[in-house]
């Protein structure tokens, strides 16, 4: 436990961060998931903590351990993450870094799916998972965090897709990253961010995921402190 220094820029602010990948079971031994190392979410949570925030870190599966000094909730499925996020509210800021599975198999059998003798493969019937970011962005102003921040991993037309995504999701800020082959963003230690808000977009230089965490933390601190 680290005592919080009240002179730090985010002292007294409660900030929720989702991170890592969700897993959707098909049966007791198989699941559907997304590519996510959890490195960017972890770096953001660490930077927020260093700036004095009380961090609620809600994480799926990640390659890196959660940062020290944050309150960790481990979840498996998108529905679990949705429930944990809504239970952790209210907060001042909510940041959605998790790679959430958009769908889940309609039925996750309690027994292992066996190969059929006829050489046929089973087909999967999927249903939509709840959109966690969208659900928080749409909350009534009395419950909605002051800042709702999303991420978008895009492989093509990054600017157009991300601009439309910010509007569709109803979030205040959106950090888009180009994860197309060759950028090294997925699983790597650096990130190229295009930052979107209601004013437009800014292209940030390529920097480490720790530096992205610090840049975002500074921006959050200025936004919250300018509203006082
Ligand atoms: N997200 C979420 N809940 C979901 C899906 C996504 O909270 N069920 C969040 C992610 O954590 C991220 C943002 O929404 O902050 C954008 O996720 P992304 O997958 O890029 O957006 P989608 O609307 O799912 O669009 P796409 O069809 O590109 O996957
Ligand atoms: Ca998605």
UniProtKB/TrEMBL annotation:
Residue numbers binding CTP: 102, 112, 130-133, 151, 165, 169
Annotated coiled-coil positions are none
Q: Where do the DNA/pantothenate metabolism flavoprotein C-terminal domain residues begin and end?
A: 10-222
Q: Tell me the pathway.
A: Cofactor biosynthesis; coenzyme A biosynthesis; CoA from (R)-pantothenate: step 3/5; Cofactor biosynthesis; coenzyme A biosynthesis; CoA from (R)-pantothenate: step 2/5
* EC number(s) from the headed UniProt entry: 4.1.1.36, 6.3.2.5
Annotated region (Phosphopantothenate--cysteine ligase), positions in chain? 15-228
Q: How is the cofactor bound?
A: Binds 1 FMN per subunit.
Arranged from A to Z, the UniProt key words for this protein are: Decarboxylase, Flavoprotein, FMN, Ligase, Lyase, Magnesium, Metal-binding, Multifunctional enzyme
Record field: catalytic activity:
N-[(R)-4-phosphopantothenoyl]-L-cysteine + H(+) = (R)-4'-phosphopantetheine + CO2; (R)-4'-phosphopantothenate + L-cysteine + CTP = N-[(R)-4-phosphopantothenoyl]-L-cysteine + CMP + diphosphate + H(+)
- Which cofactors are required for activity? Mg(2+); FMN
- Which family, according to UniProt? In the C-terminal section; belongs to the PPC synthetase family. In the N-terminal section; belongs to the HFCD (homo-oligomeric flavin containing Cys decarboxylase) superfamily.
Q: What does this protein do?
A: Catalyzes two sequential steps in the biosynthesis of coenzyme A. In the first step cysteine is conjugated to 4'-phosphopantothenate to form 4-phosphopantothenoylcysteine. In the second step the latter compound is decarboxylated to form 4'-phosphopantotheine.
Q: What is this protein called?
A: Coenzyme A biosynthesis bifunctional protein CoaBC
Organism (species): Maritalea porphyrae
Protein's gene: coaBC
Shown segment, full-protein numbering: 179 to 406 of 406
